[in-house]
Amino acid sequence: MICKQCKSDGKTSRVYDPGGGFSTLMCDERYYDEQGKWHRHDPNGMTKSYSCSNGHKWAETTYSNCPSCDYNKDRQSKGRSDG
Questions:
Q1: Is position 23 within any domain?
Q2: Cβ pair 42, 67 in contact under 8 A
Q3: What pTM was estimated for this model as a whole?
Q4: Core-most of 18, 24, 35, 50, by most CB within 10 Å?
Q5: Residues 80, 5, 76, 19: is their CA dihedral positive or negative?
Q6: Ramachandran angles phi, psi of 6, nearest 5°
Q7: 70: three-class secondary structure by DSSP
Q8: What is the pLDDT of residues 5-56, one digit of tens each?
Q9: Tally of CA atoms within 13 A in the half-sphere of 66 that contains its CB
């Protein structure tokens, strides 16, 4: 992983992952479709916070994709910068 702010500034840095994170707690939907394919539609996102050795902070949210269809494929990781 590379700090996007450092990359755009032409700098290098170490990225720290403090471990843990948090997830939303909505129910997912699991089913076999008409062709017998297994679907797991999980709307929950896992958010983790990061920081770099140059003091930049951000968070990224990831989502689980369904193994049988495009569910969550359009949901990209959303990052936020805290400085």
A1: no
A2: no
A3: 0.71
A4: 50
A5: negative
A6: -65, -40
A7: coil
A8: 999 999 999 999 888 899 999 999 999 999 999 999 999 999 999 999 999 9
A9: 21
Cα 62 to Cα 7, 25, 34, 78, distances in angstroms: 21, 14, 29, 8
Phi-psi region of 54 (alpha: psi -120 to 50; beta: other; left: phi over 0): alpha
Give the residues across from 49 on adjacent strands: 59
CB atoms within 10 A of CB 54: 13
DSSP state at residue 68: S
Which residue segment(s) compose the domain that 75 sits in? 4-18+29-81
Residue 66: band (very low, low, confident or very high) from pLDDT cuts 50, 70, 90: very high
How many domains in the chain? 1
Beta bridge partners of 5: none
Would residue 24 count as lying in a domain?
no
